[in-house]
Design goal:
2 domains, 7-stranded parallel beta sheet, alpha/beta, 18% strand, 331 residues, 14 strands, Rossmann fold, globular
Length: 331
């Protein structure tokens, strides 16, 4: 199976590519390196290119005889999407349409799409299932849900076989601290908290303490990036076992641990990992944030046999700390 991973030099995409290569797959990471890093990938698998370059996309899909596209490439910052929605509609939606059209022209009929739990309507307690109400609260989430619908429409009209993976908060470092998160600007909680013990910031800002949660701060499901990668590989492998497995030709899966942790709980757990106090400053709410996003991943467990290896928040944070201590300035 030959796989093209758009955004394959990014945090999640590169973790998936590394695991695919380790398992013997032929994989190519298609990335413009605007947010991704060449150093996150083994030599020889990177193809530099933009998703808006239809000619190059078509050429790569045909000449590399791609069987499956894994679509990671996207702008992902919730707050930025509120401030600059046109960037998100262009980069996420328009470029995804370009990709889908190039796939059709190259007769590539299988796609795995990297979506988000942010498409769901907020809930006050419990976990989210794939059948729960959809109500994206930010332009970022709207673009992801729109791409999901585009893929379903292409499936109905053109026979596209798909897997949509809605994942929660990816985090953690890989391979003993060799790989990890390196966003610029950084918007994810765990790397931001770890910047305090690294001396890169004086305190961690908490965006709101009046949410409908036990301690007033947002609750999220933190999933280790390697567990996320394993779920992606199981989903890709299910393309070849549609008739013999429980996976359907077009399936949607949540990926998460099923356990929610608040912002304050993440900070306290980080203090235990690093062995020191982390100062906090309460700030105003951030546009687009919701109270609680926790995965109900029973479908993924039942149909694809997946389960997380990292189910303890402190263990996840410890792997992130390994990466950030050894790479304080990223790659």
């Amino acid at each position: 199976m030959r796989i093209l991973a758009t955004g394959g030099a990014g945090y999640v995409g590169s973790a998936v590519c590394r695991q695919l290569l380790k398992r013997g797959y032929e994989v190519f990471a298609y990335d413009n390196l605007g947010k991704g890093f060449r150093q996150a990938l083994p030599d020889g698998c990177l193809i530099e290119g933009d998703l808006d370059d239809y000619s190059l996309l078509s050429k790569v899909l045909r000449e590399r005889r791609i069987d499956v596209v894994m679509h990671f490439a996207a702008s992902i910052a919730v707050g930025e999407s509120v401030e600059q929605p046109r960037l998100y509609y262009r980069n996420n939606i328009a470029n995804s349409l370009n990709l889908l059209e190039a796939m059709l022209d190259a007769d590539v009929k299988r796609i795995l799409f990297s979506s988000t739990a942010a498409v769901y309507a907020p809930i006050a307690e419990g976990s989210l299932s794939e059948n729960d109400a959809i109500a994206p609260a930010s332009p970022y989430a709207v673009t992801k849900h729109t791409i999901e619908q585009m893929i379903r429409d292409f499936s109905h009209a053109y026979g596209l076989n798909y897997r949509i993976l809605r994942y929660f908060n990816a985090c953690g470092g890989s391979n003993g601290g060799q790989y990890g998160e390196a966003h610029d600007p950084e918007t994810h909680l765990i790397p931001l908290v770890l910047q305090v013990p690294l001396g890169q910031r004086e305190f961690i800002g908490v965006f709101g303490d009046d949410y409908n949660t036990p301690d007033g701060t947002c609750v999220r499901d933190y999933i280790h990036v390697d567990d996320l990668a394993d779920a992606h590989i199981r989903a890709v492998e299910s393309f070849d076992t549609n008739e013999t497995s429980k996976a359907k030709a077009g399936s949607i899966y949540n990926i998460g641990t099923g356990t929610g942790n608040s912002v304050l709980e993440v900070i306290r757990a980080t203090e235990e990992v690093v062995g020191g106090k982390i100062p906090i400053k309460m700030l105003n709410r951030r546009a687009g944030d919701t109270d609680r996003l926790v995965a109900g991943a029973e479908r993924l467990r039942k149909e694809l046999g997946w389960k997380p290896k990292y189910d303890n928040l402190r263990d996840v944070i410890a792997t992130a700390w390994q990466w950030h201590k050894s790479h304080p300035n990223g790659y």
